Amino acid sequence: MDSGDARHLTQSAQDAIRRKAVAADVAGGMSQTMEATGDKLTAKQMASIKKSVLGKNPEQLRLPGLLWTRELVGYLIERRFVIRLSRWTVGRHLKEWCLTPQKPAKRSLWSKI
User: Which listed residue, 66, 75, 80, 87, has the most CB atoms within 10 A of its CB?
Assistant: First the structure.
C-alpha cells in the first residue's frame, strides 16, 4: 500500500515532483515569485502586519472578533498579501515580535464570590 510519502524516492525524482507542482501552481494563476517564496513574508510585509496588530483591533480592520488570535493574524496576512501561513508559523512570527498570550495580572473580585 502506497502512503504517498516521497521521502523514499531519489533526489532527482523528488525534484521532478517539485517542478510539476510549481508548474501546476503557476498554470493555476500563482506567480512564480509567490510559488518560490511559499509561506515567507518579507521584512516590509512583517512590519506592516506588526504595525496593524499593535495599532488596531480586529474590528477596526473589519475582521471578525475583538481580540487578536493567530487565526485572525493569519487571515489578515492572507487578505493583505495573498500568502497563507499555518497557525504555527503565525505564532512563531508573533513570538518573534514579542506578542505572546497574556494572562490577567489579577483576578476580579467577582471570581471570589
Answer: 75
